Amino acid sequence: MPSTLKIKPKRRKAIHKSKSRVPLKQLHRRDGYGSLTSCGKNYMASDTAIGEDEQEELISRDGTDPLSLEATFDQRQGGPQVPDLYTTPPPIKDSLTTDTSISQDNTVQQCLPHLFASGKSLLSVNAHGVPSLEREGHVDFLHDAIENARYIPYDAVRPWVLYWSLTAFSLLGENVETYQQRVVETLSVCQNLSGGFGAGHGQLSHVATSYAAVLSLAIVGGSESLDMIGRRALWRWLGQLKQSDGGFSMCVGGEEDVRGAYCSMTIISLLALPLELPPNAPTRAHGFTSFLDGLPEYLSRCQTFEGGISGRPQSEAHGAYAFCALACLCILGPPHEMLRKYLDLPLLISWLSSRQHAPEGGFSGRTNKLVDGCYSHWVGGCWPLIEAAIKGSQPSALTITPKFGSLYNQEGLIRYILSCCQADDGGMRDKPSTYPDAYHTCYTLAGLSSTQYFSYYNGTRNAEAGYPLDSAFQWGFSKKSPQRDGNEEEELVDAEDMLVSLHPIYVIPWGAVERSHGLFSQKTGF
Ligand SMILES: [Zn+2]
């Protein structure tokens, strides 16, 4: 039995009972990539037929009834047309079979029905075969996620559950201010007097949970939220994380990688903390005086021979580390100065381009890995920063040519997200064979949002005036309508499926960034 299928209780949609459906005996097992030489009909042609009784019980792991392929077939006769690029396996295939190639083949198999038929009724896809955003289902799923974060398994990720849920709520246009009081109460017990936030009461401060906590407080807003942050203690604690090679560790005595650099600089810039190292910072012994000392050079050394960016020098390139490094460089200065100076941009673009798969359309995180919805942000979020580095400073959205395209295939990403990542009962997932969670809901929606807006840098050089990291706050955005490839007249996503825009560096709503920066940049001292 194919790995994507398992026995589940019967669940039938009305369309499966239509008299026009393909006879059950024409529906066969799919046992290998080799049978998927083209879309649609080849799913119906195989020599390993299964009995009707067995077919009645076969439902894919993600809940999609394989019988829905008959709906696909009907769509392709007269319904929405999905381009071959998203419905046809790659024409050139390496003949060497490995565990990796088998996993890739299985992934294509599980995605194709969703991409060309969506596994849904004809009413739930638009004229281009793109499913609608199941907004209400995702909101309900997130309510469950945030309400259940009190359970023991969440003990080590409590601030993260808040951040993922609140960011996803924001993307969906929900009012998150109602969570203000509860967020303050939850995070107040995570904050340590010695600085920083742990995952829960009495837990060691960690820069990842501190990042999630600070951003969560910024999202819900209100003076009580932001004022509860012990900025002086946080500054002193961050000083302990600064390393002699320019980077940051994740906690005192913990591992060092680019997450530490991005999370630390996000906190420092958003809260307008002094850039001068605290007097007792260990790296003062190495001659460092500022959090910025050696930092861009450290990030530069994380770029690998492939062009991607690894967690630390001489390691493997990874999409999430790429975003952390790019966003951190964009905190340190204008993108067209920092990215061009410290990275081999053409090589990075080449590596990032290789992360997008066809026919799936989504991104993978590493070479020879599978597509995964969360990289819609980790890789997808790199593109606006790179495009800003290429275009330079844009005084306003009006200067952006309407025909300005994208460095990646946005249609492919949109189709992957809306066709493959939406779980039937709400929430977003890695791929059809997996279950949804708050993490993937957050980052998959963030990736979808980034296809709906232009983000552009609109600053001018500012190093001598104001806060040295002001360039991070000199970005703007404008709405765009994702369109069919090569057809400017056809919008790919329906208007009701537009999301809220997020700041491309801080990955929270623009208003939350402005509110925090506005409050703390006015303060003198702690
Ligand atoms: Zn993932």
From TrEMBL:
| Reactions the enzyme catalyzes | L-cysteinyl-[protein] + (2E,6E)-farnesyl diphosphate = S-(2E,6E)-farnesyl-L-cysteinyl-[protein] + diphosphate
The ranges of region (Disordered) come to 1-21
Q: What Gene3D superfamilies does the record point to?
A: 1.50.10.20
One matching Pfam family is Prenyltrans
* Cofactor binding, per record: Binds 1 zinc ion per subunit.
CDD domains for the chain: FTase
Q: Write out the entry's keywords from A to Z.
A: Metal-binding, Prenyltransferase, Repeat, Transferase, Zinc
SUPFAM superfamilies documented for this protein: Terpenoid cyclases/Protein prenyltransferases
The UniProt subunit note reads as follows: Heterodimer of an alpha and a beta subunit.
Official protein name in the record: Protein farnesyltransferase subunit beta
Which organism does this sequence originate in? Lepraria finkii
